[in-house]
Design goal:
heterodimer; A: alpha/beta; Peroxisomal Thiolase, Chain A, domain 1; 3-stranded mixed beta sheet; B: alpha/beta; 2 domains; 9-stranded mixed beta sheet; two-stranded antiparallel ribbon; 15 helices; globular
Chain lengths: 346, 385
C-alpha cells in the first residue's frame, strides 16, 4: 500500500521502564529447563501503558520539534489498556497538550496493534486529512506465572510522529503490505487475566507464515529484493523466532541485531517491532533501507519499507536512544516483580 | 476360517498437521488404500481411534467416515482400545473376513491430537488407565512408565543409556521414512541431555503427539492375489488383556498381555521368534521397546536391553525393530499407530521400504499396545508372492 502523498517519520521516541527481572530468577522459582531471554523489563508501581506511552511520545516530540497542538490524530495500539472502557488515547493526548482538536482512538490487534496505529497514521497523513499524526505502540504484557510466556512478557513503548515527506523527515515510508488470517494462536477472553497460547502452533502456521508472507508481498509490490535492505526488524516474542524468520528470508544476523532487543527487555508486544525500528534508526545512516515486519496473534503482519533520510543525523541525539533505556536498569527479585506486575491479587 | 490378506495400504504424513481435520486425514488414507488395492467398493469399515470424543468432541466415527469416503450405508464402526485401537481395528477386520461375513473391508485408524493443548492431550491419554484408582492420584502415562523404567534399571542393574539408546535407532530409521514425523538423527547425549518428563524418562525417549491416519484394504488371500502381485497374508491375529493398572499386577516388568497374545499368535502361525525377520513394537517410551523384546520372546527377562546395546535391533542387526522409525520417530497418532505398524511392515515385506529395506523381509511380527499393556494385539504378516 502507498498513500497518495508521501509520508515520513519526523519524530520517534521510546520508553523502557527501568526495572528488570532476570530469566534465571524466574527459573529459580519455577525450575524451568529453558530460559528464552536473559532478562525482561517491567513497569514500576507507578507506571502503566498510559504513562509509558506519554514518555515515549515526549521523546518523539523532542525529535519532531513541533507544537503538540498541531497533531491531528493520535492512535495507540495496545492490549494492556488501564481501562477496559475509556480511551487511553485521550489521557495521553491530554497529557501531551494535543487536545481538544484531534482524532483519538485505541487499537487492538495483539502485538500488531502498534503497527496498526502506525499504518492508520500514515493513511491519515497520506490522504491529507491531517498534517501530523502520532502513532504509539505500548504494552505492559502479562504472562501467566510458570507459563513459558512469563519469561518474555515485558513492558515498553514506542511513539512515532508521521508527517508529509519534507526535509524534516527522518525516514520515509516507501510502502506497506498487510497479511491477515483468522489463526487462533494466542488470545485472552473477556474477564480473563492472563492470555492463552497454543504452544508450537504459534510458530509455523502463525508467526512465520504471516511474517514471511507479508515481507514477500511487500517486496513483490515494491519491486525490491532482500539485498536492497540494509536492516531488518521483526516482531520479537523471543530471540529464536526473529532469528529464524531472518534465516528463512535470507537476511544476515548483522542486519537484524541492531533492532533485536528481546534478550534485554523481553517481548514488549505492541511496542516490540516499533522499539526495534527505533533501535535501528538510532544507528542507521541516510539512504539506508529498513524492512520492518510486525506480527500480531490472531493473526496478521504489517510490513513496511522505510528509507532513512538526512534529518536523522541532526535529530537522533535530541532524545534518549533505545540503548540508553536498555542500559538503565535495576534488578528486582521474583517477590517484588510479583507485586509490581500485580501477580498477587489483593 | 478363510485366509486373510492385505491388498492395499494408504496413509498420510504424520506430524503436526494443523490445517487438516480428523476426517480429512482419514479420507486421504482410506481412499489411497482403496486405490492401492484397485477396489472401489468395501463392505465394512473399522476405524481405530481413541480420543475423538475428548479432543474433537466427535464420536460416531463409523458413520461419519463411511459417509466421507463416499460409502454411506456400509457397516462401519469405531474401535477403541486406547493406543492399541489400530491393532484392534485390524483384529476386527481380520475376524470379519476370516469368518466369511465380509469379503472386502477397510481396517483403518486415525488420531488428530494437535487440536488441543498438551495438558488436555495428556489428560485424554490418561483415559487409557483407571480414572478412579490411578489418574485421580495424579499419575500420567509417562509417570507410570517411569515407575517401570526405574524399577527395571534397579532390578536388573541396567544403565539408562542401554535403554535410552533405543530412541537413537528409531530416529536413524525415520530419517529415510518420507511420512515420519521426525526425520533427524539424534545422539545418545542429546537424549540424556533433554529435559525429564517424568524422571528417569527424558523428553527424547517419548513418542510425540501426532496427527495422522492410515488404512488397509483387507480381503481374502485368494482375492488379494488377484488384486496385487504383492499380497501380504495375515497369518496370525490375536489379542489379550491384562489388569488395566500396574498396581494390580504381580510383575510390573512383564506385559502379560504381550506374552499371552504373542504365544497365541506364534501358535496360529506355527512359528517361533527365530522365524521372525522384523518386529514392530510399541515404543511409546524407550523402556516399552525393551520390555517388548523380552515379552515377545526375543530376549530373556532382564536382558532385552542387551539387544539394544549390541545394536541387534538395527536394520542390519539380528532382529530389526521398527525399521521405519517406530512410535518414537515415525510418530504416534494413537488410533492410527497400530495400522501404521502394518504399513511399515508391509512396505518391508513388499520390498518397497526404500533406503530402509532390509535384506530378508518375509515374516513380520507386530505388537500394538494399549495403555501400559492393558490390551495387546499381535499380528504376524507374511509375504505371499
Amino acid at each position: 500500500m502507498r498513500p497518495s502523498r508521501e509520508v515520513g517519520i519526523i519524530g520517534y521516541g521510546v520508553y523502557i521502564p527501568m526495572y528488570r527481572i532476570k530469566g534465571e530468577e524466574i527459573s529459580r522459582i519455577w525450575k524451568s529447563s529453558t530460559i528464552p531471554v536473559k532478562e525482561k523489563s517491567i513497569v514500576g508501581p507507578d507506571e502503566d501503558s498510559v504513562t509509558m506511552a506519554i514518555e515515549a511520545a515526549k521523546n518523539a516530540l523532542k525529535r519532531a520539534k513541533i507544537d503538540p497542538r498541531d497533531i491531528g490524530s493520535i492512535r495507540i495500539g495496545t492490549e494492556s489498556k488501564p481501562y477496559a472502557v475509556k480511551p487511553s488515547a485521550t489521557i495521553i493526548a491530554e497529557a501531551l497538550g494535543i487536545t481538544p482538536v484531534s482524532l483519538a482512538a485505541d487499537l487492538e490487534f495483539a502485538c500488531k496493534a502498534g503497527t496498526e496505529a502506525f499504518e492508520a497514521s500514515i493513511a491519515l497523513v497520506g490522504s491529507n486529512m491531517v498534517n501530523y499524526a502520532l502513532a504509539i505502540g505500548v504494552d505492559t504484557a502479562q504472562g501467566r506465572p510458570r507459563d513459558a510466556l512469563e519469561y518474555t512478557a515485558g513492558c515498553g513503548a514506542a511513539a512515532y510522529i508521521l508527517a508529509p515527506k519534507s526535509y524534516e523527515t527522518i525516514a520515509y515510508i516507501e510502502g506497506s503490505y498487510s497479511y491477515v488470517t483468522d489463526t487462533p494462536d494466542f488470545w485472552r477472553r473477556e474477564g480473563q487475566f492472563y492470555p492463552m497460547h497454543t504452544g508450537r502452533f504459534t510458530g509455523r502456521p502463525a508467526y512465520f507464515k504471516h511474517i514471511v508472507e507479508a515481507a514477500k508481498g511487500l517486496m513483490e509490490n515494491l519491486g525490491l529484493k532482500i539485498s536492497d535492505f540494509d536492516y531488518v526488524v521483526f516482531h520479537q516474542p523471543n530471540i529464536k523466532f526473529p532469528m529464524t524468520a531472518a534465516r528463512i528470508l535470507g537476511f544476515k544476523v548483522d542486519q537484524l541485531k541492531p533492532g533485536l532487543l528481546c534478550g534485554e527487555i523481553g517481548n514488549t508486544y505492541a511496542a516490540s517491532t516499533l522499539i526495534g525500528l527505533a533501535g535501528i534508526l538510532d544507528i542507521a545512516k541516510p539512504s539506508n533501507r529498513i524492512l520492518a515486519v510486525s506480527f500480531g496473534s490472531g493473526a496478521g503482519s504489517d510490513a513496511f519499507s522505510i528509507v532513512v533520510q538526512d534529518a536523522i543525523e541532526s535529530k537522533r541525539d535530541l532524545a534518549p536512544k533505545v540503548l540508553d533505556y536498555v542500559k538503565r536498569r535495576k534488578y528486582v527479585d521474583y517477590a517484588l516483580y510479583a507485586v509490581y506486575r500485580n501477580k498477587i491479587r489483593t | 476360517m478363510r485366509r486373510v490378506a492385505i491388498a492395499g495400504i494408504g496413509y498420510t504424513k504424520i506430524g503436526e498437521l494443523w490445517e487438516r481435520s480428523l476426517r480429512d486425514l482419514f479420507v486421504e488414507a482410506a481412499l489411497k488404500a482403496m486405490d492401492d488395492a484397485g477396489v472401489d467398493k468395501v463392505e465394512a469399515l473399522y476405524v481405530g481411534n481413541m480420543m475423538s470424543g475428548s479432543l474433537q468432541e466427535q464420536e460416531h466415527l463409523g458413520a461419519l467416515l463411511a459417509s466421507h469416503i463416499g460409502r454411506p450405508g456400509i457397516m462401519a464402526t469405531k474401535v477403541e482400545a486406547a493406543c492399541a485401537s489400530g491393532g484392534m481395528s485390524l483384529h476386527q477386520a481380520y475376524l470379519a473376513v476370516a469368518s466369511g461375513l465380509y469379503d472386502m473391508v477397510i481396517a483403518g485408524g486415525v488420531e488428530k491430537m494437535t487440536d488441543k493443548l498438551t495438558p488436555d492431550v495428556t489428560l485424554s491419554l490418561a483415559m487409557a488407565d483407571d480414572r478412579e484408582y490411578v489418574v485421580y492420584s495424579g499419575a500420567t502415562f509417562v509417570g507410570l512408565n517411569a515407575l517401570i523404567y526405574r524399577y527395571y534399571m534397579h532390578k536388573f542393574d541396567v544403565k539408562q543409556e542401554d535403554i535410552a539408546s533405543f530412541a537413537v535407532y528409531m530416529h536413524e530409521n525415520a530419517c529415510n521414512t518420507p511420512y515420519a514425523q521426525y526425520r533427524n538423527p539424534i545422539k545418545l547425549e542429546d537424549i540424556l541431555r533433554s529435559p525429564f518428563i517424568a524422571d528417569p524418562i527424558h523428553l527424547l525417549e517419548c513418542a510425540p503427539i501426532s496427527d495422522g491416519a492410515a488404512a488397509l484394504v483387507i480381503t481374502t488371500l485368494d482375492r488379494a492375489k488377484k488384486l496385487t502381485d504383492t499380497p501380504v497374508e495375515i497369518i496370525a491375529s490375536s489379542a489379550a488383556t491384562d489388569y488395566l493398572s500396574i498396581h494390580e499386577r504381580d510383575d510390573i516388568l512383564t506385559l502379560r498381555a504381550t506374552v499371552v497374545a504373542s504365544k497365541e499368535a506364534y501358535g496360529q502361525a506355527k512359528l517361533e521368534p527365530k522365524d521372525i525377520d522384523l518386529l514392530e513394537v510399541h515404543d511409546a517410551f524407550t523402556i516399552l521397546g525393551v520390555l517388548a523384546l523380552e515379552d515377545l520372546g526375543f530376549a530373556k527377562k532382564g536382558e532385552g536391553y542387551l539387544l539394544v546395546r549390541e545394536g541387534e535391533i538395527a536394520r542390519d542387526g539380528k532382529i530389526p525393530v521398527n525399521t521405519m522409525g517406530g512410535l518414537k520417530a515415525r510418530g504416534h497418532p494413537v488410533g492410527a499407530t497400530g495400522i501404521f505398524q502394518v504399513i511399515d511392515a508391509t512396505l518391508q515385506l513388499r520390498g518397497e521400504a526404500g533406503k530402509n529395506q532390509i535384506s530378508k523381509a518375509e515374516t513380520a511380527l507386530l505388537q500394538s499396545t494399549g495403555g501400559v499393556g492393558g490390551t495387546v494385539v499381535i499380528h504376524i504378516l507374511k509375504r505371499r508372492d
